[in-house]
Specification:
It is a single chain. The chain is an alpha/beta fold. It has six helices and ten strands, in the order E-E-E-H-E-E-E-H-H-H-E-H-E-H-E-E. Strand 9 and strand 10 form a beta hairpin. Helix 2 crosses helix 3 and helix 3 crosses helix 4. The structure holds adenosine-5'-triphosphate. GO terms for molecular function: ATP binding; ATP hydrolysis activity.
């Protein structure tokens, strides 16, 4: 099967620290991939390399045959939730989404923005400034921001951080449906074994600079 994302002998160092050491792997379209590893193992670095927010020290990275190694533009059709989302604190959630949407190369309609907020369990009409949001609400707004432009590739770094049990369940169903119904590829970093077990088709373990593929258990999983 043709690759959708490809790492070819990728190295990434920061001064004397080598975070990725000759890493090669290929990912297919329309699957959910889990990335696991200890704190500081390099999950976020991999996500930033794929989304063009960081460059490799050497090696090549391809996204749908586009060579991302020296890409100058953020690739189209990627939704990203990496680290704590930065929002303008004195604006409402909806106003923040409108501003970010205005920067997109394929802006969504107001209705789509509202729907994205509703999908994650936020009220688009709520005028509360984001600075008063709880951790979970902020995280939900981060997910809404990542999905609002209907991306083909969704990169989610610890997306369930701060979400209550019911919201986690809803998000799991939502991400699974995005894959099944819209063929969205999802890359997920999580320290939560259950999220990985329930959501991912395939798993990558990152340790000491290497990335090892390990097959997800084939048990039938109910979301
Ligand atoms: N911009 C940077 N400058 C210097 N070092 C960095 C930079 N970004 C990441 N690193 C280092 O790269 C290593 C991997 O970091 P990364 O954020 O990818 O870890 P992670 O696997 O996502 O960890 P966590 O589970 O804690 O989120 C860490 O040692 C980190 O300090």
């Amino acid at each position: 099967m043709a690759h959708y994302i490809k790492f070819n002998q990728v190295n990434k160092s920061f001064k004397s620290e080598q975070v990725l050491n000759d890493v090669s792997f290929e990912l297919e379209k329309g699957k959910i991939y889990g990335f696991v590893g200890r704190n500081g193992s390099g999950k976020t670095v991999i996500f930033k390399l794929i989304s063009g927010l960081m460059r490799p020290t050497s090696g090549e990275i391809f996204l749908e045959n586009q060579n991302m190694t020296h890409a100058k533009q953020f690739p189209k059709s990627i939704g990203v939730l990496i680290e704590t989302p930065g929002f303008i604190p004195h604006y409402s959630g909806m106003k923040n989404l409108k501003i970010l949407n205005g920067l997109s190369s394929s802006p969504a309609s107001i209705e789509t923005l509202e729907k994205s907020m509703e999908l994650v369990g936020l009220d688009p009409k709520n005028k509360k400034p984001v600075r008063t949001y709880s951790l979970g609400m902020r995280q939900k707004l981060g997910i809404a921001q990542a999905i609002m432009n209907s991306p083909e590739l969704l990169i989610l770094d610890e997306p369930m951080n701060g979400l209550d049990e019911e919201s986690v369940k809803k998000m799991r169903v939502f991400f699974t449906n995005l894959k099944k119904e819209k063929n969205v590829t999802i890359l997920l970093a999580s320290h939560n074994k259950e999220d990985i077990q329930v959501l991912c088709d395939d798993l990558f373990e990152i340790s000491k600079g290497t990335v090892k593929r390990s097959k997800q258990s084939q048990e039938e999983v109910v979301v």
